[in-house]
Amino acid sequence: MEAVEKLIAALPFSPSEAERLTSMAREAYAPLSENKRVDSGISIVPDSARKLVASAAKVRGFQSATIPTPLRIREYSATADTGPKSGVVWGKSLNDEGKSFEFVVNESALRTWPGSGAFMPSQLEHLLMLADRPNVSVGVIPSGVWLPVLPPHGFTVCDETGVLVETFTAEMTLTGSEHVTAYREAFDALSAVAVTGVDFRRVVEAVSADITRFIQGIH
Cα(90)–Cα(53) distance, rounded to whole angstroms? Predict the structure, then answer.
């Protein structure tokens, strides 16, 4: 609206005509300003993701095709990090016992990998170790289980404040309440059909045995 007002003022209209046009423009723009923008609550600024994770007391993440970034060993990260660079440096964040972390992955995420996959037995052993931490929960949805929702991408929910969504080309931070509610409900539904504890360990150990036999078979 400001640009329109400047344009009218710059043109050779009489004062009355300029006022009439300005009034018409304001009436036309009024409904737009009252409606919420479709991109409200969405940011692709990397620092917004870092701040969101740093301030969160509870972090919940889902991945269907890859190991969640905070759970990766160095070899997995070095091979997989070819997409957009995250604004979040997870580092030793899982060591912060003031925070709680919940992760859910499809079994298919354990059975696919970047590169040769030679590091996967170590990666899966790392998952088992992390799952034993008091502030970390890791669940897996076994193959063949009916999925209550089908997210087209992985996501991370931080408290009730925001959601991190990593696409192929960018990382977005969603803070609109409708976004947070939708992703939180999706996570809860996926978590409900995931196995944890002893059953989680059983699935991971079976996958690790299969991968070890596969790797030995090609070397």
Answer: 9
